[in-house]
Amino acid sequence: MFDFTASDWIIIGIAALLIGISKTGIPGLGILAIPLVAWVIPAKASTGVILPMLIVGDLFAVRYYRRHAVWPHLIRLIPWAVTGIIIGYLIMGKINDRQLRPIIGIVVLAMLGVNYWRNSRMKGEISIPTQWWFAALFGLLAGITTMMANAAGPILAIYLLAMQLPKNEFLGTGAWYFLLLNCFKVPFSMNLGLINPNSLSLNLINLPIIIIGAFLGIRLVKFIPEKTFALTVQILAALAAIKLLF
Questions:
Q1: 8 Å CB contact between 145 and 155
Q2: Helix, strand, or coil here: 195?
Q3: Distances (CA, A) of 139 to 37, 151, 196, 217
Q4: Banded pLDDT at 2 (limits 50, 70, 90)
Q5: Closest listed residue to residue 240, CA positions, set 132, 125, 149
Q6: Per residue in 157-175, pLDDT tens?
Q7: 67-103 burial code (b ≥16 CB/10 A, e <16)
Q8: Helical residues (DSSP H) of the chain, grouped into ranges
Q9: Domain boundaries, the chain
């Protein structure tokens, strides 16, 4: 685990910094950390390394944005996401990352397209789906993808953008969502051997970098206007989805 070159350590450090920034400032950056870590560590093992990093970032995000969470959205999403995590755990041994990634990418790009069409063509006049199946679809997709690839960020981002949440409510709702679900994932990842003493030692080494990233994200988000924030999230989600296709 620790037989890394200097460039390997730099790549992991950049990933840790991106995770910290994404949790408190710019959602979407975090998913860019997934392929970075997977370049250095085998794909499945990398999910066990990334998960505790995400939880550290989640703790900072919840501490800072805890009052901005919109709990009705969380209550609708979390039961379905938990179901998705269990499904993802059960099929981990039957599908590999190469098969899963293009599916995630296609779904995210499709949702981005629908959201863009609604905003640009209908100017917000089209009603947002409030039926149970809308939250169920996004909750299941997010649960499965977060268990198998830690890649639920773009899916949740599209859902929260569709709900037209302001910047702070977006971050607060996402913070609680991911903290609860990432903690729920820990026993499953440990059972699969993805979280172990070696991976936790690597997390501990990168802890200061994640903390720096979290504080940097808090600083950055204060200077980003609402429209720019939403556009940035969509662009990063699209880039991440395209990356998952290849």
A1: yes
A2: coil
A3: 25, 13, 28, 26
A4: low
A5: 149
A6: 888 878 888 888 999 999 9
A7: ebbbeebbebbbebbbebbeebbeebeeeebeebbee
A8: 6-24, 29-40, 43-65, 71-91, 97-121, 132-149, 153-162, 167-191, 197-221, 226-244
A9: 6-244
